[in-house]
Design goal:
Elements: E1 7-12, H1 15-26, E2 29-33, E3 37-41, H2 47-52, E4 58-63, E5 76-78, H3 85-95, E6 98-99, E7 110-113, E8 119-122
Parallel strand pairs: 1-4, 5-8
Antiparallel strand pairs: 2-3, 3-4, 6-7, 7-8
Length: about 130
Amino acid sequence: MTSRLLQVTVDCRDPHRLANFWAAVLDYTVIEDRGDKVEIASWEPTVEAVRQQPIPSTVMFIRVPEAKTTKNRLHLDVMPIDASQDDEVDRLIGLGASRVDLGQGEQTWVVMADPEGNEFCVLRSIAP
């Protein structure tokens, strides 16, 4: 018996804003929009595809009434594939992200927050 990681779910105040932000970050598209729930992915999930092999997870943004109040217990890491880390950080700031200091000190990754304050890291680039 086994399971697949199909979806990462993010509670948020504005699912459309965050879905659009993360779709731009990850080069995903909106695959479902139910108003209070917006799902993005790089592919269209099917039962057959999920059964066949591990696949990239989708990301679902669900509206909740409360705002984020503390540091995330789980966060996403992104890796630039066709630009430097600095260029990617600048691009993400242009999309609405901000740099965050959580006391991480000097590291090889950059800690950022999405437009609702959810922390994520930009790892080193693998651009040629």
